[in-house]
Amino acid sequence: MTQVKNKAKEKSNNVIPFIPEGDFYFTKGVEAFQNRKFNIAIKWMKKAIEAKPNDPLYQCQMSVIYTEIGAYHAANQLLTNVLQSTEYTDCYYLIANNYAHLGLLNDAEKYVSLYLEKEPKGEFSEDALALLDLIDIVDVDDEDDDFELEDEDELLIYQETAFYHMENMEWEKALPVIEEMVTLFPEYMLAKHDYSQVLFFLGREEEAVQMELDILKQNPNTLYSHINLALFYHELNDEAAYKMHIHTLLNVYPMHEQQKLRIAVTLARTEQYQDAYQRFISLSKGRLKNHPSYYRWYSITAFNVGEPAKALSLWEEGCKQHPSLSKEAGPWE
């Protein structure tokens, strides 16, 4: 993202008699971003984009901010919009980087290869080659990410909608969205794992468990099946089955923040607080601020390991970032 940042600095360092409205907003947004005031940066950058909706640099800089706070799908939606109207090749690398963070390595490889094909000596070429090397050496736990997006725009909308409802534990609202996503994108395995979790919390426990067992039978190393089954069996008080799956998770240390968070949350939800706490403290908060589950379960974990002050601080920060959390009972409940 060096090029985007460098161009941003060039704009912010220009001294001219009159600053067009869009450039003024852009400059303020970049300043806020550099000071890590991401919420303010987003507000300024939105104004800049409204003033100059066809400037690809503005949208790319907004995507960089979204990436920094962990809103990878939103970042890719912006970058995809840019590519529909202009051949701004930096977008390919930025999209690849976001997919890598999401653990969607197939798609990351696809876009990083496109970037190198179009810009073999581009600003991001060294980073792109390093990302390709990383993808080659990563031992992927499962085939959940082995999915090529054909209708990427449509899938991103479904992903974001389902993500919002699940993060806020709005299971009834999440169900029709995920059902439709599974129907339209049957090869997208992550949606099936989300579907089974929604089914479980809507009271269709037997169906949810069997769904994950069927997936696990086809691929015994499916990380998300172990995550869901550990949670399901804990809720069903099946201690023996629970221990088998939680033992698997305790020995897995993914490289992607999304997968790390899922394991940490599962450990917290199954009352493995000491192990959960170690996982939470290793997470990058800057990349997970858009996840209410991060604040909800980290604060609960902190409270249960004897850190009430930290629990309160996390809960207050979470409620500020996500007002919907304030409607829930705090970690002390």
UniProtKB/TrEMBL annotation:
Keywords: TPR repeat. The keyword Isomerase does not apply. InterPro entries: TPR-like_helical_dom_sf, TPR_rpt. This is Tetratricopeptide repeat protein. TPR repeats lie at residues 22-55. It comes from the Bacteria.
